[in-house]
Write the structure tokens for this entry.
Amino acid sequence: MRVLLTGGTGYVGQAVQKALVLHGHDVSVLARHKRNLIPEVLFEPGDIRSVDLNPLMARTDTVINLVGIIEEHPATGQTFDTMHYKVTKRLVESMVQNGVKRLIHMSALGTRPGAQSRYHRTKWKAEECIHDMNVESIILRPSLLFGGGSSFFIMIKNQCRLPVVPIPGDGSTLFQPVARSDVAELIARLVTTEQSWGQTWEIGGPKRFSLNALYRHVAASMGRQHLPLFHVPLALMFTAARFGENLPGFPVTIDQLTMLNEPNVTDDTRWHEIIAEPTPLANDF
Ligand SMILES: NC(=O)c1ccc[n+]([C@@H]2O[C@H](COP(=O)([O-])OP(=O)(O)OC[C@H]3O[C@@H](n4cnc5c(N)ncnc54)[C@H](OP(=O)(O)O)[C@@H]3O)[C@@H](O)[C@H]2O)c1
């Protein structure tokens, strides 16, 4: 299949490039730069907010959209509304205009109408936009991804080197980490499926971890069996973030704190029909 991949230079995208090529797909990657592209893919330069998408669609059977941000940078126009919603709208409009029927779209677990975080609300707006347009889609909503250098797990690893680790709230929020390699393989196989179109799948790994347990798991992998945790009251964290989130180097935004305080788990196992044995969280973060 001729696949147009957006967000291919990112953490998930790099694994998806490789999986698509391994499955024999003809892959074009729309990206702002060539870094992280493997030699087997075709680089299509452009900023997804402004590039003319029509010439790309003329050579595409299926679009895979991985573009997303975890933190806004209004000064450069990288806002949640633009990067999640407006960019998706541009893509699907161009698909419809050019008769490209199929879209695999990366959303996120927790996406729902009326979500607390702007990250999730704009992901929801993007999902609604896809449903309103005449394209066949598979929407994937994974929990936290791990493996091969996830920035979230790198942050946990760095914090696990501190004498005492500050945790927002009581650390009981549940997560269901899922392997990046599993999601990449899933996406590559979905490209040729004839089922599943029109569906939205939530994707969680084989085990649920509280935030405390995630930190302890990572610390243990570093040889630190006893990890002193300091639970910072959420109200205090939110107040600090309200004042500090726009300062360079401030560790967390209000939106991220909001998400860290919401359970991120699912009972949806439909994706196991394709990836029968999801990879458990071990020591590759
Ligand atoms: N990582 C997770 O744990 C996780 C969990 C759930 C859902 N997701 C979702 O999965 C998707 C991929 O996440 P990720 O972790 O791979 O994020 P990432 O590493 O930050 O990658 C984001 C990608 O979007 C591209 N992008 C951003 N702005 C762009 C622009 N203006 N024009 C063209 N490309 C642009 C980036 O390109 P540049 O290289 O040019 O910046 C990069 O390729 C996102 O939709 C995210 O919300 C991720």
Remarks:
- The chain is about 35% helix and 20% strand.
- The two ends are 31 Å apart (CA to CA).
- Residues 7-13, 31-33, 47-49, 66-68, 83, 106, 108, 142, 144-145, 150, 152 surround NAP (CB under 6 Å).
